[in-house]
Design brief:
Elements (H helix, E strand, L loop, with lengths): L7 E3 L2 H10 L1 E5 L2 E7 L5 E5 L9 H17 L7 E7 L8 H14 L10
Parallel strand pairs: 1-4, 4-5
Antiparallel strand pairs: 2-3, 3-5
Length: 119
């Protein structure tokens, strides 16, 4: 029997706001990650890149694509979490590998609390 691969889903608006309000923050250089546990085995993901960072949608989408790919490659470490990345303007000067190092150092800091939810 084959196991189902982990999926990366996007956060809906309500959950996105919950993560921003209640999530725990982790920061490395030009990248902040807000993390909140969820009750499913899925990783839900969002990126907050405002027009204040860049007026060009191409640049904003480039950062989103890079962070999505980095997160997809690290799904096993992140099972059962809601994630929201918040980049700083200096991230536009970084290449993919620098962003990947920042994100992976943040992923190492995340320790999912045991028995977070009691039923």
């Amino acid at each position: 029997m084959e196991t189902c691969p982990l999926k990366l889903k996007t956060l809906n608006k309500k959950d996105f706001k919950k993560v921003l309000k209640e999530g725990k923050s982790f920061r490395k250089d030009f990248l902040v990650l807000k993390v909140r546990p969820n009750l499913s085995e899925k990783v839900r993901f969002g990126v907050l890149v405002s027009k204040k960072l860049s007026k060009k949608a191409v640049l904003r989408n480039k950062i989103k694509r890079r962070l999505r790919e980095i997160t997809r490659a690290n799904l096993e470490k992140l099972v059962g979490l809601d994630l929201v990345f918040i980049p700083f303007p200096q991230i536009f000067n970084c290449d993919f590998w620098e962003i990947k190092q920042m994100a992976e150092k943040i992923f190492e800091k995340i320790k999912k609390p045991k028995n977070e939810f009691s039923f």
